[in-house]
Design a protein that fits this description.
about 100 residues
Length: about 100
């Protein structure tokens, strides 16, 4: 099922969360987050080769990107547990 059809199935469900449609969307966030992490890592490595103050500026940019990625990944982890089709079997629904 494509991302677009997942969104359409959620809309057709009158805005209610349809776990079977939402879970794949949440799963699909992993690859872009991995690419963003690699991009930030590359920036950090490039920063080490630059003279000051440019190196510090690029390094701070890389760290800020990594911090934001960590926040998004925490939210994605929560959504994975919330929308997992077998969350009850895996104990995700229990506190």
């Amino acid at each position: 099922m494509s991302k677009t059809s997942n969104v359409v199935s959620i809309k057709q469900n009158h805005g209610r969360i349809d776990e079977t449609g939402l879970f794949p969307l949440v799963q699909n966030m992993e690859e872009p987050l991995t690419r963003a992490t690699r991009f930030a890592t590359a920036l950090a490595m490039i920063a080490e080769t630059l003279d000051e103050p440019d190196g510090t500026t690029v390094q701070q940019l890389a760290w800020s990107i990594m911090d934001e990625i960590k926040k998004v990944e925490q939210q994605r982890s929560f959504l994975i547990r919330l929308t997992h089709p077998k969350r009850d079997e895996r104990g995700f629904g229990k506190r």
